[in-house]
Amino acid sequence: MNIDSVYKYLTTGPSFSIGYSGIRFKKLSDLDKVATGFEEDFEGMSFNYDQDKDWPKDWLLIGDDRVVGDPVIVDKKSDNLVVMTAIKGDRKWQSFVIADSFTNFMKIIEQFKVICSGRENPEALQQNPYNSIELDLFMSSIRHDNPKTDVSYWQDYFKL
Questions:
Q1: Distance (Å) of CA 54 to CA 76, 91, 153
Q2: Minimal CA–CA distance to 35: which of 15, 57, 54?
Q3: What's the order of all strands across the beta sheet hosting 83-89?
Q4: Nearest partner of 83 among 144, 92, 70, 46, judged by Cα
Q5: Which end of the chain is more exposed for a tag (fewer CB within 10 A), N or C?
Q6: pTM for this structure?
Q7: How far apart, in whole angstroms, are the C-alpha atoms of residue 68 and residue 112?
Q8: Are the beta carbons of 149 and 100 closer than 8 angstroms?
Q9: CA-to-CA dists, residue 106 to 9, 34, 65, 147, angstroms
Q10: CB 142: neighbour CB atoms within 10 A?
Q11: What share of the chain is helix, strand, coil (3-state, %, to 5)?
C-alpha cells in the first residue's frame, strides 16, 4: 500500500455518519490545501498547520471527527500507512493509532458503514438502535486485526 492508495480511496467519498457522529473525509480536490497545512474547523475558522511547529510534516490530514473535529491522519513515514487521530495538549500533538494500516482502516470504515446504514441521523438512530451483538463483532474485528490500535476511539462512537 502506498500513499496513492489513500488518494484513490478518498475519491470514493467514504464519509459516514451515525446519529450526530461520524468521520468527514476530505475531498480529493481539497487535499492539496490540506496537505500544505491549511484547514478550516466546523465553524469555518481557519488554522494553519504549517505555522504549528509541532505538526509533523509526515502526517497527512485526510479527515476529521464530525463532533469534536479531531483530525484523522495518515502517517506517511510508516510502512503500513498507520492511521491516527490526535489532540493538542500542552502545545504538543499527541497521536493515537486508530488503525494499524490504511488497509485495515478501509476495512473498519466499510464495517462501520454497514452499522451506520439506516442510522445516519439522530432520528433514524433512535428508531433503529444498534444492538450489542453487532457492536461486539465490530469491536472484536478491530481488536483482532489491529493489535496496536486504541479501540476506545471506535467505542466512543457508540458511547461504550
A1: 16, 8, 22
A2: 57
A3: 16-18, 21-25, 59-65, 71-75, 83-89, 92-99
A4: 70
A5: C
A6: 0.83
A7: 18
A8: yes
A9: 8, 20, 16, 16
A10: 24
A11: 40, 25, 35
pLDDT for 43-83, tens place per residue?
454 455 545 567 788 888 888 887 777 889 999 999 999 99
Answer yes or no: are the C-beta atoms of 50 and 36 closer than 8 Å. yes
Can you tell me whether residue 70 is helix, strand or coil?
A: coil
Closest CA to 73 of 105, 51, 44, 45: 105
Backbone CA torsion sign across 63, 95, 48, 36: negative
Cell 497545512 found at: 37
Per the structure, the complete domain to which residue 151 belongs is given by 3-158
**Would you say 102 and 81 are in contact if contact means Cβ atoms under 8 Å apart?**
yes
Scored b (16 or more CB within 10 A) or e, 13-25 reads ebbbbbbebbbbb
Total domains in the chain come to 1
CA distance 84 to 2: 16
- Rounded Cα distance between 8 and 145, Å, is 22
